[in-house]
Every structure is written in C-alpha cells, then in structure tokens.
Amino acid sequence: MQYLTNSDRATTDSSCVFCVKATAPDTNEHILYRGDSAYITLNRYPYNNGHLMVIPYAHAASLELLDPPALTELMLLVNRGLAALRQAYHPDGFNIGINLGRAAGAGIAEHVHVHIVPRWNADTNFMPIVGDTRVIPETLDQTYERLRPLFGAIAR
C-alpha cells in the first residue's frame, strides 16, 4: 500500500489516467490484481475479450526508468495474466506488446504499460474494415467478473 500512503509523489502524476486508476477502488477501475510494484487491469477499450494491461505504479515513460524489482514484477504479472486468460478463454495465441512513445503507437506515452491481447484463429472479420467497429461479445463488467476470481486462485 506504499503507493497509496507514501507522500513520495515523484513516481506518480495526478493527471495521469494510470496513476489515478491505481488509487481507485478495484471494481470501479476493473483492477484484477495488485502487486507491490504493478497492477493488472482490463483495457477500457479492448481489442478482444480479456484484453489486459499490466501497469507499474511508478509514473515512468519507458522500461529503463523502472527499478529492477518493478521490471521483474511487471513480467511476472504478464505471466499471471496469461495463465488467467488461458483458463478463462482458451485462446489460440496472444499479442503481448509495449509501445514506447507516440511514434510507436502509445496512446498514453507518459506511463509505460504492457498489453496482453488474447487471440483466436480467425478472430478478425469484416466489421473493423467495413464498419470501423469492433465487436466484443462481453461487457467489461462481465469480463471482470469472469477473470477476477482466477487471479486469487493463481496467486495461491
């Protein structure tokens, strides 16, 4: 809980959506798991059902600005996310990515984060191309309710 109670605000930014998200109640922000240095949450604008993000509490724009314990936990939480998604959705594969900087496609470039996107064979269709629309058959609340119990079980 140091990230909530510590007066050291050099590692957070009150205008950053990820820093604000980290201080909110888990259910409000669809936070699935909190570690010591990072947390796992649902992406508010998912590419597919189960699209997760692993986000360090430290407000840093790039991986090399994180300390070794935060870097280590970031990847351990990616593994935890993969395990939960495999159990809940049985995907055929995953896209795991980090976009560093606006030029690389980062939507929130000032706070590094890892995307985990479950993928299925033939999961693309005409809707994104023709209708500029993605079809997600599950709401974020439904996805949260499906995944949240798995993170407790995986932690044990």
3D structure, described in words:
The chain is of the alpha+beta class. It contains 6 helices and 5 strands. The chain has a single domain, classed as HIT-like (HIT family, subunit A), CATH 3.30.428.10. The chain has helices spanning 2-5, 17-23, 26-29, 68-89, 127-130, 140-155, and strands at 31-34, 38-42, 52-56, 93-97, 114-119. It has a 5-stranded antiparallel beta sheet with strand order 1-2-3-5-4, sandwiched between helices. Mean pLDDT is 87; it is low at 1-10.
Count, helices: 6
Structural class: alpha+beta
Distance between the termini: 20 Å
What count of domains describes the coordinates?
1
CATH classification, class level: Alpha Beta
Biggest sheet record: 5 strands, antiparallel
CATH fold-level label: HIT family, subunit A
Low-confidence stretches: 1-10
CATH architecture: 2-Layer Sandwich
The level of helicity is 25-40%
Radius of gyration: 16 Å
Let me know the CATH homologous superfamily: HIT-like
Mean pLDDT: 87
Q: How many beta-strand runs?
A: 5
Biggest sheet, spatial arrangement of strands: 1-2-3-5-4
Keywords:
single chain, 156 residues, alpha+beta, five-stranded antiparallel β-sheet, 6 helices, 5 strands
Summarize the helices and strands and which ones pair or pack.
Elements: H1 2-5, H2 17-23, H3 26-29, E1 31-34, E2 38-42, E3 52-56, H4 68-89, E4 93-97, E5 114-119, H5 127-130, H6 140-155
Antiparallel strand pairs: 1-2, 2-3, 3-5, 4-5
Helix pairs in contact: 4-6
Short structural description:
By secondary structure, the chain is α+β, with helices and mostly antiparallel strands. 37% of the residues lie in helices and 16% in strands.
